[in-house]
Amino acid sequence: MIRIGQWLNGDGFADYEHAFVLVDDGQLVEAQPGGAELLPLSAYQDRPILWSTGHVPLSGEQRRAIVAAAHGYLGVPYSFADFAALAAHRFHLPAGPLLKSYVASTKHMICSQLVDQCYQDAGVRLFADGRWPGYVTPADLANRLLGRAS
Asked: pTM to 2 decimals?
């Protein structure tokens, strides 16, 4: 289902389907339908991971702010509306601004939105085009790290 959603969103069949924030050497924060959770990094053992280290230069203060932001989003859920907002944006549907407003006001966040929002909370813009974090997909993050246009 994720791959179909990626294709519908214009990402094709992307190699990256999920994103999380590493908060220390052994834990991560990731979005889940019932709310963002703190999980062990070992949950992704034997899975390919694309790390931002070396691709996004950060100061120690920025890293600490990103981690603090991630902890602050624990428990924040995502919903169908998050995906509907992405689709409306992709297809330039008139409901797009209404869905964006709803998602922002209810503070729902998909995984890639959570990651981009944590960086923005730390004063780091991952995308020069000023896009709303709710329009960021895992493929956008991967393309950013790999130096591809997105």
From this structure: 0.86
